[in-house]
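Protocol step 4 of 6: record predicted structures for both targets in the notebook before any analysis. Target 1:
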Amino acid sequence: MAVTGCSLCIKYMLFFFNFIFWLAGGVILGIALWLRHDTQTSNLLMLNFEGNQAPGTFYISVYVLIAVGAIMMFVGFLGCYGAIQESQCLLGTFFTCLVMLFACEVAAGIWGFINRETISTELINFYDAAYIKAVDPVDTPTRQAASKVMVAFHDTLECCGKGDDNALFVTVQTTLCPHKKAEDALISQSCHIKLRDLFSEKLHVIGLAALAIAVIMIFEMIFTMVLCCSIRNAAPAY
């Protein structure tokens, strides 16, 4: 027996929220793919110096986001189909998946908040290691490799130096720093600041998307429970 009245309204509201949830999964997947192939981050994270790859924590986080986006799209479809079919089994499965996703999102949010500086700090340390070698007065293969790493950082971020070493900065500024095209003047903004800004902006995008999805998930869990109860009450008694 089909649900009626307010329960019917809840059914279609649940379908609507699940459709939004499915779309949100697609948005998360799209954001993750954009972060994976973003020119700035790709140019920096593909660098190699003295046999060491640039820290890959950021890419690990991106791959997790790709998996989450794909799972959200599957769960969203499951919820839409379960709501239309008024299936307690499908809705129960959907609710269980939703609770697990919500718990994972909360755990990921806590982990991300605690380690919000980790990605930029790792890259800053990688930059500093190359910086020390690049300002070595002795011309060696190591210095040449470090100089290439420095140029990649400076050209990608349009920055120069660490901003805290004036004595060595003159060497870096005159040999490894990019020039402003308009004024043909040397760029002097600290790469430490630019690196922190680069990843903090991306984390803000992820954080806002996660907050919006969490709100949708809470409404979905409420509507799913109400609809399941309505379906059970509307079922004929034998």
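Target 2:
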Amino acid sequence: MTILAVTLNTALDLTYQVPQLTPGEMHRVAAPQVRAGGKGVNVARVLHALGEAVCVTGFAGGATGDALRAALRADGIAEDLVPIADATRHTVTVVDTELGEATLLNEAGPHVQEAEWEAFVDRYRALAARSRLVVLAGSLPQGLPDDAYAVLIRAARDPMVILDAEGPALLEGAKAGPDLVKPNAAELATTTGYPGVVRGARVLRDLGARAVVVSQGAQGMTAFTSDGSWQARPPGRLTGNPTGAGDAAVAALARGMTRGTPWPECLADAVALSAAAVCAPLAGDVDLAVHGRLRPGIVAQTL
């Protein structure tokens, strides 16, 4: 049995690093670092680095889709992507190495035809039936309905499901009863209309989500579950590329859930692995030495 990482809006990621990003000015850059991307792909790459069996599925089309498949194979990550006529998107990240901040330029993605969506759902059912846990992560490509994640959650049946989305896709998905949803604080506020994480998480749990974990940047993460609520914080502010920090947290939560790890330990590990992602240069990478150093000092506190 494996973990299935679903990225409906896959991407070919290009990452540029500059000493200082100045809007309106010309920047000379080295060749970008190119790799397979999208939130679920990033989750899969972290799980692969942790030694977990994982498979990526989603859509892939055009030359960028071919490059995406090749990049996954080169990284040793199993994939079962469904072909589509339209081309897979690019995403561009510009990292300001002085400030440790990242600017993202994300294309909307391809337009998925109804027949392509139906073919994917059929493939997904077969893959989910062989999985211990399913991660549904990222934006929806054009052509898919707002309840696309809800359809996949209901179709999963046996495996546990983590949903990492925002907006209508998150609200509709929560109604289908996923085991965990993991927005960040900004996504939670925008989606629910409430600025506080407590009220926002309550909205998602009232809709049907069994547990909610909210990532809050340097403030750490807060978990709201039927067993209780906890908060865990990193020991200090870290600089680097924060782009894949949330995806690393989802990977940690997925690993913990498949192992039956208690929520406080699972949350603490997610904070440590998220911090380790900030210290790595590319989204989807983690500095495991940083994770090992930080993890013993992170303790989840009961709210």
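Step 5 preliminary note on target 2. The longest strand covers residues 11-18. The longest helix spans residues 114-129.
Proceed to step 6 after PI sign-off.
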